[in-house]
Amino acid sequence: MTLPPLPPDAPKTALAGKKMFTVNLQQIPLLNGLSPQTLAQVGRAMIFRPYGKGAYVLHKGSEGEFLFFLLTGRLQVIDLTDDNREVGLSFLSPGDFTGELSIIDSLPRSASVVATEPSLLALLPRREAQALMYTQPLIAERILKRTVAMIRQTSSYRAILGINNAFQRFYALIFQMARPGPGGLVVIEILPTQQEIAATINVSRETVSRALRVLLEKGIVEKDLRRLIVRNPEALRHIAAASPNA
Fold this sequence. Notes:
Strand content: 25-35%
Low-confidence stretches: 1-15
CATH architecture of the largest domain: Sandwich
CATH topology of the largest domain: Jelly Rolls
């Protein structure tokens, strides 16, 4: 079923900013497989909202009023250290959702989310989001699996942050982010910016630039626009485990 972005009672196509969008709710992974009747109810309750690059989608400590679905663009989940430095926790790509923890326990947001590029989101109000979680076993299972994956990812990031050597932290992050791709390649499909990586592993952007240059010069990785191809995964694993001092 095709439903529009703006507002819940708008016609099947509508404007979000200066662009017209049509949204197929079946293409949102969390909602895929729900009945047409349930999707229609969800679509009527949704609010569609564009965010510019650098705009905060939600702030840590705010009330959890909505479940957010990323339709286009890219988001980063961030937190603050004790000395008020931003630390990146994870990235969200189209099809991902966020804000589920506050929907479940009604506590304030545990982190902030910022748009790293122009993004379009669908916001589902708390009441409708809770109804989905409590009445649709498929939704509950998917959210539970997502929560477990986030816990594992956070644990991995904490382990990386515990590495003393700055270059080694970068290599470990790249090794963790790389995934098997088409044609047997190991890739990072959308490589975060150097500033985003720096925030994730708590180093300077210059350190990220230098560490990446080492990998490029050794032929371990190759850049292809925004994609990073890992030409030698075993060498990357080795250098991530034991790199020279930076």
